[in-house]
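Supplementary notes for students who missed Thursday's class. We covered one full example, reproduced here. Read the sequence, then the structure, then the short commentary at the end.
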Amino acid sequence: MGSPGGKPFVLFCAGEDSGDILGEPLVRETVAAGLDACGAGGSRMQGAGLKPLVNFEHLPVSGFGDVLASCGTLRKDLDVLRSALRDENCLALLAIDYPGFNMKLVRLAKLLGKPVLYVAPPQIWAWKQGRAKQLRGIPLAVFFDFEADAYRKHGCDARLMLHPLASARLPVRRPARGEVLLLPGSRHAQAARNIRAFLKPALDAACRIDVECGKVTVLAARESLQVSFTEIVRNQLAQSACRVKVEVAPAGVEERLERYSQAALALVCPGTATLEVSLSGIPMVICTKPDLLTYAMGKMLVRTGDFGLPNLVMGKDVFEEIILPPMMRAGAGIGVCEKLASACRRAVEKDMDGVAQSVQAVLARGQTSRELMLEFLGKLVERKAH
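Structure (token representation):
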């Protein structure tokens, strides 16, 4: 299965919302160059011209346990992408994050002799350093110096790419009443665990900020998650559910930053959302509740102390980080609630605007997405000419 129009195409693979954001300008440059863009991507990439070959809603899963539960559907989608990569009209692979699929596609592309560009490759600085050997000889676009250094130590061609948040307009921080934002993640199973674990502590923290108006807003990464999140809230809280809203996060980066800046505190699943919240000027706690298998494997294999991107890029613990054990006992959420309340108290004294500016300065280095794609597509044209 290749391009529906039978034209030369670049195969894209992004399997989650953060990858969809990164892939949007890359797809646009590919289409502008007169090539088709086909593969896996969400609404943003499809809006830029991607022709989908698989259902994006199947793909956002993480953790060993969650992947096992969806392995049948995922295997079929991977087979579709492999078939497209073998198509004679497929000129190259553009992989974006999502190593569960993309490392397999990279291996196949190498066997087929097709060029590869990998944007946001696996986090070898945290675990599975052996993956670096498989990525030698292909260009890797990373966002942070510590990522580039980790790959270069293994002989990889890693170059810095300007982060999409580098040029975002920072919102003006305004006095906020007692709203706590809950950003549980874009992968359904993980987000469901996070909502169930953190709703009540977040409500308690909101009340500590403002007894009269304390409330929690759950932000869904896309519309398809809003209905299931609303059902979880109703089942979890019953009578208290009226104090919890479920909204779809704004699509635009600056609109999201503005929405975040209106809150008093955010409880955020690790990932790109933590960078966005750090740029919005509000305090947050970075937290998640992994599945049992991921938690056990992480205890054995993860090689880094911090897992929140703002802390990693700043090189210090600016925001608190919490990983809840999967088999959390009843009442264990009290500790989380105390951390949230402490984060609120410290926010009065902390210069959050200074943090936002410092984080954004770190992001403002490297090639733009346009420069990166022009270089990559230029090489494809040269290759085709020969």
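Commentary. Residues 9 and 19 are 19 Å apart (CA to CA). The chain has two domains: 9-162+365-385, 179-363. If anything here is unclear, bring it to office hours.
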